[in-house]
Amino acid sequence: MLSDISSTNRLSASATTTASGNSSTDLQNQFLTLLIAQLKNQDPTNPMDNSQLTTQLAQINTLAGIENLNTTLSSISGQINTNQSVQNTLLIGHGVMVPGDAILVGEEATTPFGFETDAAASAVTATIKDSDGNVIAQLDLGPMGAGTHTFQWDGTLDDDSVAPAGKYTVTIDASNDTGALKTTPLTYAIVYGVSPTATGAVLNLGTYGTATLDQIKQIL
């Protein structure tokens, strides 16, 4: 650390550095040990440079400041994660729109469906199929802007009859003057629970499996 220390003192300093850590406190102790050794062994006709001493002290103080900042940031990060976990539990019991193509038809209602697109569409069509892949209904949704859109199918088939209870799938076709647009179909699910993980919260969607927070496109 100090350039004028004798070879004996260098070996002593190396052993001290190896035995101790690299924290600012360890470096301060090592610095003081080396400084005392240099003061004892320096040439009176060529004393050590004060500017070097000042620079090394400044570097040690900077390291101490960085360590304190890291400790503070770690504490703040922990508080943020705790607050996010509490907020995520508020989703339990709510309906969300996540990527998927399922529509459930019950005796009195159907679950919403939707889609997401990055560009405005001049025409959008939703095609609903049964479990055998047969087309049972086509819905003209008209022009749509870019973003997320959610719809409610009343369960009426193309022949004006009512779809029996069960699970159906939907595909979305959207286009504009440039041609066909890429769309992501969305399905409705209820959040039954939230599990914190190292990479973020995971939502339990029951029969729909799990989803992460970034997969939620709408909260209903």
UniProtKB/TrEMBL annotation:
Which InterPro entries does this entry report, sorted A to Z? FlgD, FlgD/Vpr_Ig-like, FLgD_Tudor
Q: Where is this region: Disordered?
A: 1-24
State the Gene Ontology BP annotations.
Answer: bacterial-type flagellum organization
Domain of life from the UniProt record: Bacteria
Q: Which Gene3D superfamilies match?
A: 2.30.30.910, 2.60.40.4070
Could you tell me which residue ranges the FlgD/Vpr Ig-like domain spans?
A: 107-177
Domain FlgD Tudor-like: start-end pairs:
83-217
Q: Which UniProt keywords apply?
A: Bacterial flagellum biogenesis, Cell projection, Cilium, Flagellum
> Could you tell me which Pfam families the record lists for this protein?
FlgD, FlgD_ig, FLgD_tudor
What NCBIfam families does this protein map onto? Answer: PRK06655.1-1
Q: Provide the function of this protein.
A: Required for flagellar hook formation. May act as a scaffolding protein.
What's the family? Belongs to the FlgD family.
Indicate what this protein is called per its UniProt record.
Answer: Basal-body rod modification protein FlgD
Source organism per UniProt: Rosenbergiella nectarea
Taxonomy of origin reads: Bacteria, Pseudomonadati, Pseudomonadota, Gammaproteobacteria, Enterobacterales
